[in-house]
Amino acid sequence: MSTQESQPSGRHAIVCGGSMAGLIAGGLLARHFERVTLVERDRIEEGPRQRKGVPQAQHLHGLLTRGMDILCDIYPGFREELKAAGARFLDMSAEHAWHMAGLWRPRLPSGVQFHAQSRPLLEWTVRKRLLALPNVRVVDGREVTGFQVSPDNARVTGVRLRVPGGGQEETLEGELVVDATGRGSRTSQWLEALGYPRVEETRIHVDLGYASRICRPPPGFEPGWGLMSIFPNMPQERRFGAIEQIEGGQWLVLLGGWHGEHPPMDDAGYLEFARSLRQPHLYECLQKAEPLGPISVYRFPHNQRRHFERMRRFPEGLAVVGDAFCSFNPLYGQGITTAALQVEVLGACLREGVEGVAQRYRRRAGKALEVPWLLATSGDLRFPEAEGRRPPGLGLLNWYSERFQRLAGHDEEALRTFVRVLHMLKPPAAMFAPRFILKVLTARPDAAALSRVPECPTSSSTSQAA
């Protein structure tokens, strides 16, 4: 059932954090509660601006098709608004120069779109829709310092707020509090202080580091793609790079790597890192591009999953969404979409009533995280330095996945299937259909697939990757 069909079943809901998870949750809750208050530590400014609470805002962000579908369900017409604001909608394989598993992927229509824009533009477009809702209020410049609870600590009844850095606290009461404050969420500590058991955590250490820069393409540059990505052959190689065409005709260039293979911040070192990639095309583009700003760096130490679904006791009136629940390696582009999936689960739980929603939600959200967590961590665990428990069968899974990727380099059905799995439109089991297993075990790429190399013009000539 669509979220649009819901009727208000509660009086007041509070969302802590104006992240993408918080903005999506706010729109969903506005259909289930008479009033919604979103509390954000940063001051909210007009326009698509970077803010302190989003340290990775300068970098490439993926909004998968499944996430876009949920956003459009909550905010009808959102896709058109984002496109009108300057976002580029690209076919994931036809307009993507994509090197993976040692092959350039065939450039053929997949029917699945990649939405290319800066994070500030994406966030601002969602925030505008949230602020336009008549029953939503935003309280910015306030940090949440703790929960208000019932006398027996069995229910969260609101939050305590104050101006960051000090000042008098104020109380905000509500029937449901949603924590969307990200990786730094203090919900675990606050629950433990209230007498609840320690929240079990799973961490997979990856030591990922990447650096991004906004550039202007060379004059007359028409490569025939809107996104180029070059991935390493893991685990032997660890460096990756991408160029995404975003709003304003600009390039967002991303370079990075695992386990200490991090790009330098100086111009010469950044360019040299690009030259070290498995293919030269990104380096050739970057050589002729005009930098429009500084190099921005982001470090991601580990995947982090807090198992709220496993807690023996948990208070009513509380739900945790987004990175506060589960934070993935951002390279795989799953974060925003997985947050949207959690919000969708929360909506389904609310349609059964406000009472008992906390228990229903945390268990169902935990199940919804299983597949995205597996997809994100199975690749990271291929590196011998990666710290974390390796589940049974991981070696076989990675063996098959690597060969499926090679198959997708020359088999159109395999490529389209992988794209739909990547965008969470099909389950990973789709790649294990009997016909694919047979192809994985017997097929070999032909000579055309091995030699398929996109041209990379840096003059006024026009070229399209094959």
**Please, what is the CATH homologous superfamily of the largest domain?**
FAD/NAD(P)-binding domain
The DSSP helix count reads: 14
Distance between the termini: 42 Å
Task: Give the class from helix and strand content and strand pairing.
Answer: alpha/beta
Question: What do we call the CATH topology of the largest domain?
Answer: FAD/NAD(P)-binding domain
The whole-angstrom Rg is 23 Å
Helix content: 25-40%
Global morphology: globular
Which consecutive residue ranges, at least 5 long each, have pLDDT under 50?
457-466
- Number of domains as seen in the coordinates: 2
Major sheet description: 9 strands, mixed
CATH architecture of the largest domain: 3-Layer(bba) Sandwich
Q: How many runs of DSSP E, i.e. beta strands?
A: 19
According to CATH, what is the class of the largest domain? Alpha Beta
β-sheet strand percentage: 15-25%
